[in-house]
């Protein structure tokens, strides 16, 4: 396979992961997986880790398996699907945990309108402390209504 196909597969996987994340967030985290996600919707974080962090492991397992099967018996497309999942996981971590929830104080000050829109959409999602009545379940692609409207 040529490198252009590998790049395309990695990029497409990254984009598809937003849909997978949206569905997982809405139907698993706010459904039968609420037990693990509930502490994430409570104000304040008394510990370094939350039960919700278990979902990072859930998403990491398929990526690791795809890496393994993507190099055995030789390099194949599965490796690049795993790479797309990994890249999405890194982006999710940086946006969700670092930028939005500020669990790490790396990018405290930003005037970027896109990042402000992401924060606003996520705050709307978190205004509901329970598992019902949620909105805006995605992470990187959010509705235009959350971006820089003059009051």
Write the layout of secondary structure elements.
Elements: H1 3-32, H2 34-37, H3 54-69, H4 77-100, H5 113-126
Family: Belongs to the sterol desaturase family.
Keywords: Carotenoid biosynthesis, Membrane, Oxidoreductase, Transmembrane, Transmembrane helix
GO molecular function, one term: beta-carotene 3-hydroxylase activity
Structure description:
- The protein is mainly α and about 150 residues long.
- It has one domain (about 5-110).
- It has five helices and no strands.
- It has helices at about 5-30, 35, 55-70, 75-100, 115-125.
- About 15% of the residues are buried.
- This is Beta-carotene 3-hydroxylase.
Q: Nutshell version of this structure?
A:
It comes from Tenacibaculum lutimaris. This protein has helices at residues 3-32, 34-37, 54-69, 77-100, 113-126. With 151 residues, it is mainly alpha-helical.
Question: Which features characterize this protein?
Answer:
151 residues; mainly alpha; 5 helices; membrane
- Report strand %: under 5%
Anisotropy-based shape: globular
* Helix-and-strand structural type: mainly alpha
Mean pLDDT: 81
Low-confidence segments: none
Q: End-to-end distance, in Å? A: 52 Å
Number of domain modules: 1
Taken in chain order, the helices and strands follow as: HHHHH
Main beta-sheet strand count, sense and barrel state: none
- Total beta strand runs: 0
Give the helix level as a range of percent: 55-70%
**Count of helical stretches:** 5
Radius of gyration: 17 Å
